């Protein structure tokens, strides 16, 4: 495993966004529906007062009758970002926001994962690649 990068300029110039295939949904699991979802089908989760908030493939959400109000595309920044790095989320969220694209971020131990509206996936990829290219010119 590579060493995590903390330098913001290097993070942005080497972030290499990767778009995953498929549609992803956020849902809340509670005592009525949590036991039906296999742990292997949950991409990300966090405990909230309302229940276990999860990210799953759309097929899993539909199979279990979970709401699919937000159909998302999943983009991974493949650079190994340090969890203590400052500014990466602000940089890409600002760039996406200026393009009118909402983003929901999940930080893994090695990478940042961005969920954007599915219909804006390619536009988001273009914005992220542009941010990366501009940063690479400055480094």
Feature tags:
DUF2241, 139 residues, single chain, CASTOR_ACT_dom, alpha+beta, seven-stranded antiparallel beta sheet, globular, VC0802-like, ACT-like_dom_sf, 7 strands
Briefly summarize what is shown.
The chain has four helices and seven strands, in the order αββββαβαββα.
Describe the structure.
The structure is a single chain. This protein has 139 residues and is of the alpha+beta class. The chain has helices at residues 8-13, 58-63, 88-98, 121-138; strands spanning 17-19, 24-29, 42-48, 51-57, 71-77, 104-107, 112-117. The radius of gyration is 16 Å and the shape is globular.
List the helices and strands and how they pair.
Layout: H1 8-13, E1 17-19, E2 24-29, E3 42-48, E4 51-57, H2 58-63, E5 71-77, H3 88-98, E6 104-107, E7 112-117, H4 121-138
Antiparallel strand pairs: 1-5, 2-4, 2-5, 3-4, 5-7, 6-7
Domain DUF2241: 5-72
InterPro entries: ACT-like_dom_sf, CASTOR_ACT_dom, DUF2241
Domain CASTOR ACT: 73-129
Shape: globular
Topology-level CATH name: VC0802-like
Specify the CATH architecture: 2-Layer Sandwich
Total number of beta strands: 7
Strand percentage lies at 25-35%
Helix content: 25-40%
Distance between the termini: 24 Å
Averaged pLDDT: 93
- Quaternary state reads single chain
Q: How many structural units, i.e. domains?
A: 1
Which series of helices and strands comes N to C? HEEEEHEHEEH
Largest sheet: 7 strands, antiparallel
What is Rg?
A: 16 Å
Low-confidence stretches: none
Q: DSSP helix count?
A: 4
């Amino acid at each position: 495993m590579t060493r995590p990068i903390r330098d913001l300029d290097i993070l942005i110039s080497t972030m290499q966004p990767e778009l995953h295939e498929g549609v992803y949904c956020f849902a809340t699991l509670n005592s009525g529906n949590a036991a039906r979802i296999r742990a292997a089908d949950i991409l990300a989760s966090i405990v909230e007062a309302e229940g276990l908030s999860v990210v799953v493939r759309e097929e899993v959400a539909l199979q279990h009758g979970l709401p699919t109000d937000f159909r998302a595309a999943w983009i991974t920044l493949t650079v190994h970002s340090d969890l203590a790095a400052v500014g990466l989320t602000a940089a890409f969220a600002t760039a996406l926001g200026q393009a009118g694209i909402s983003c929901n971020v999940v930080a893994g131990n090695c990478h940042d994962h961005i969920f954007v509206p599915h219909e804006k996936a390619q536009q988001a990829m273009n914005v992220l690649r542009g941010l990366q290219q501009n940063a690479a010119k400055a480094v």
